[in-house]
Amino acid sequence: MFNSSVKIVCFIGILIMTVVRTACTGRYRTLQSEEKQSSAFDTILLAFSGVGMIVPVVYVLSPLLDFADYRVPAWFPPAGMLLFLPAIFLLWRSHADLGGNWTPVLSLRKDHHLVTGGIYRHIRHPMYTAHLLWGLAQVLLLPNWIAGYALLAAVLPQVLLRIGAEERMMVRRFGGAYRTYQVHTGMLLPELFSSRARR
Questions:
Q1: What span, in angstroms and rounded, lies between the C-alpha atoms of 23 and 130?
Q2: For 41-88, what is each residue's pLDDT tens digit?
Q3: Which residues, other chains included, contact 198 with Cβ-Cβ below 8 Å and sequence gap of 6+?
Q4: Taking the model in full, what pTM does it have?
Q5: Which of 126, 143, 174, 181 is deepest in the core (most CB within 10 A)?
Q6: Around 187, how many Cα atoms within 13 Å sit in the side-chain half-sphere?
Q7: Which residues contact 173 (CB under 8 A, 6 or more apart)?
Q8: Sign of the torsion formed by the C-alpha atoms of 23, 14, 128 and 44
């Protein structure tokens, strides 16, 4: 089953991320959306992300993918563990700050409001940042061409293709308020060194 402490760490990280996501998905199902922008393609991207999250679990729990293992420098696993920490924090914090405004698909609630506090004071899309960090952590933790890269390969297209659509949807709903918010925040990372960030 587990053949290394690194796999155990990775499994615990995946488990924590899954618990956070599952709790928020359950809350989402009880609420109604007013404006839905998702398409069949969007659903495929979500499903692809799900597969990207399952493949590393298969690797951790079985020897099926061991044929694709490769060697890594000794600093890879500790760096992966360190990346998992901000990924977990960002996923939890972004869900907590969004509350009932979160949806897994491109949609807005009937009573949707613009969230600019908490982690959203600094980053407009911290959930995507969390998934990218999670994907990078797995590359460093799992030295396997399939399992290590599965989540990153699944999440990158979603991030690249959905952020623009999300931002356009938010501008349509919130207009100038969202445009002002865009000026004062980073898309995926805080604007730590800009004059805008210090205002």
A1: 16
A2: 777 777 788 888 899 999 999 999 999 999 999 999 999 999 989 999
A3: none
A4: 0.85
A5: 126
A6: 8
A7: 35, 108, 112
A8: negative
**Residue length of the chain:** 199
Cα–Cα distance, 3 to 43 (Å, whole number): 35
Dihedral (CA of 107, 109, 113, 118) sign: negative
Q: What is the pLDDT of residues 148-197, one digit of tens each?
A: 999 999 999 888 888 988 899 889 989 999 999 999 999 999 876 544 44
Burial bucket for residue 171 (CB in 10 Å: 0-12, 13-18, 19+): middle
Interatomic CA distance for residues 150 and 103, integer angstroms: 23
Q: Domain 5-184 is in which class?
A: mainly alpha
Tokens found for residue 137 = 């952590």
Per-residue model confidence as pLDDT tens digits over 137-150: 999 999 999 999 99
- Helix ranges (H only) for the chain are 5-29, 40-61, 76-98, 126-141, 147-174, 176-184
Domain ranges of the chain: 5-184
Contact yes or no for 80/147 (Cβ under 8 A): no
Please identify which residue in the block is written with the tokens 């609420």.
31
Q: Which residues, including other chains, have CB under 8 Å from residue 144's CB and lie 6 or more apart?
A: 59, 65, 66, 68, 69, 70
